[in-house]
Structure formats: structure tokens, C-alpha cells
Amino acid sequence: MYKIAVLPGDGIGTEIVPEAVKALNAVGARFGHEFSFTQALVGGAAYDAVGHPLPDETLNLCKESDAVLLGAIGGPQYENLPVHLRPEIGALLPLRKELALYANLRPCMLFPDLIQASTLKEEVLRGVDILVLRELTGGIYFGEKKRGFNAEGIPEASDLLKYSSIEIERIARFAYEAARGRRKRICSVDKANVLESSRLWREVVTGLAKEYPDVETTHMYVDNCSMQLIRNPRQFDVIVTENMFGDILTDEASMLTGSIGMLPSASIGGEVALYEPAHGSAPDIAGQKKANPLATILSVAMMLRYSFRLEKEAKLIEQAVNQVLTEGYRTPDLQEPGKKTVNTEEMGNKICEILTAVR
Ligand code: IPM
Ligand code: MG
What we know:
Elements: E1 2-9, H1 13-31, E2 35-39, H2 44-50, H3 56-64, E3 67-72, H4 87-98, E4 103-109, H5 122-125, E5 129-135, E6 145-149, E7 155-159, H6 165-180, E8 185-190, H7 196-209, E9 216-221, H8 222-231, E10 238-241, H9 243-254, E11 266-268, E12 273-275, H10 294-306, H11 311-326, E13 329-330, E14 340-341, H12 344-357
Parallel strand pairs: 1-2, 1-3, 3-12, 5-10, 8-9, 8-10, 13-14
Antiparallel strand pairs: 4-5, 4-11, 6-7, 11-12
Helix pairs in contact: 1-10, 1-12, 6-7, 8-9, 10-11, 11-12
């Protein structure tokens, strides 16, 4: 029996998460696994209900579970709350920190049927398969934040970007281990020409590289990386980078997959891992059944793989996603002429049909 904490959160989170739960149940029925789901509030939904975006009850449930499935958090109605009550700073970041989820895995895999859905050319995209490892519990997201006035009385603000060598080494090690199971190349992304924290980052990675002579190590500045990702994305195997660079680069990299609605993620490091789509709560389309549930469904495939070591089951979900796309079903974010448009729930149903039927 696998115990899963389910945190739908805000916006489209409440629409996509049930589809991923359905997919897990279909896999469970097929392979004889039992998944138990306990739902809890997080983000704006929790603030509305109980006055805090990360209630103790929710955090405790996560800690007691075998894995956490999160939808998305945030929305315009919460943007003017005091900072500590905002869904991002009050819930998502502390959740990552409390669960010690320092490694965020965002795999950009290309489903061949979606090549046309990308804004990039087919010859650029063919064969793209990148794993971005984003450091998730350090750097500028967690450094000291200050607001004040300078000597002339002009408002000022600052966010501290700080890393210890321990934080750098553990994410880099994770990247090297992951690269060993792939094409054995890591590209460490930093801004070492300007930032001291990046110079330490580069030193630590360079030192660690000696322990992994079988893995090719390269270093790239983040500005160049953002250009190379759309110039020639096939050059990358594993990218490892600090928290904010990883946030920005993975939104960019999601377009290699056709839509940000296709990018799953796993956040790993502590005893319990967390799985969520890399996209946000999309308030502009929330409540309209338009959201693409595939990133969340692919995130539970990662849950099966990394938390439960159920590789066959994980692959089956990925295969079902591939098949549904080959059959021409598309949520509106992936719309192309000649394809069959389905809503969030219909897409989830199609996936479940395949999970149940495929041999
Ligand atoms: C992500 C998101 C979050 C982040 C936001 C919602 C705080 O953009 O997971 O990429 O910046 O980490
Ligand atoms: Mg982001």
C-alpha cells in the first residue's frame, strides 16, 4: 500500500490532479498495487479556508506519506497578501525546504507527435532529450530578503544569493549519478563571469568531476545556455544549475516539448519526494476544463519511478501519453489543425482507457 498526499492547490491544480489520481488508480488496478490518497489544502485554497497557505496539518500529512502529489498554487487574488501569507513564499518554498527537496528533476522529452506543436523547427527538435536538475532549496529564493531606504531616503530592496559548497556538491553529485544512467554528459550552468556564488559553484563541480571521469563535464554561462537551448538543444544531456537559473531555463526548455503543459517534475532529496507539473496555476484558464493534465500525469509516472521503484508502471504511463498523442487527442494548449480537441477530463479518460487496455 502506497500512501500519497494529494494537494491540488489553486487554479487548474484542482482540475489536473484528479486526472493524475485516476491514472494511478488505473495502473494500480492493472498491476495489483494499492494507492491510498489523502487530500489536503495548500496555497490560496488553504489561506481562504484556514488563514494560512501551508497549514500544519498539510505539512504533517506530507511528512507521513510515501509521496506527495501537488497541482499548482497561486493566483492574482493572493498577490497583495503580506509576503509570508502568499502561496509561493508561505507554502511552496517552505514545503520544499521542510521536506528537504534539494533536487528538482525536470525532464524535457520530446513526444514525436508534438513536434508540430512547438514553435521551433523540426530539425532543431528531433532527438531532444534533456534532464534539467535544478537546485531547489538554496540560492536567491531562500537568501535573506531586505527592504529599506538608502541614505537619501530612496527605497531599496535586496535578495541574497548564497550557496554553501555542501549544497552545491549534493546537487552536482545527483546530476553525475543521473548522467551515468543516461548519455554521460553534464553541463553545469552558472554566471561565474560575474557572480561569486557561481565561482564557488564552478569550483565545486570541477572538483567533483574528478570523481566521475566517465562523465563528460562542461560549464556554460546561463545567458549562453538560454540561447543554446533554442539554437541546438540536442547538445544537452543533463543540465545542472542553481535555483533561479533552473526556474527560468526550465520554462524555456518546456517549449522544446511543445507546451509547458507537458513538463513534469520530481523534487527529491528528503525522505518523501514531491511530484508536480512544472507549470503554474494558470488563473487565465482555470475553471474552464482547458488545462492539459499530461504534465501532472507524467509527474506521477516519475513518482512510480523514483518513490516506488515501479519502473514498468512508470513506462506504461509514458507510453499511454505517447499513444494518446499519436491518436491525435489534444488539449487546447497543443491545438493543431486536424487534431481532436479534448478537455482536461476527456484527456484523463483517454489515458486511463489506454492504461487499462494496452498489452
Ligand atoms: C516553479 C514555479 C515556482 C518557482 C513558483 C510558483 C514559486 O515557477 O516551480 O518553477 O519559482 O519555483
Ligand atoms: Mg517556474
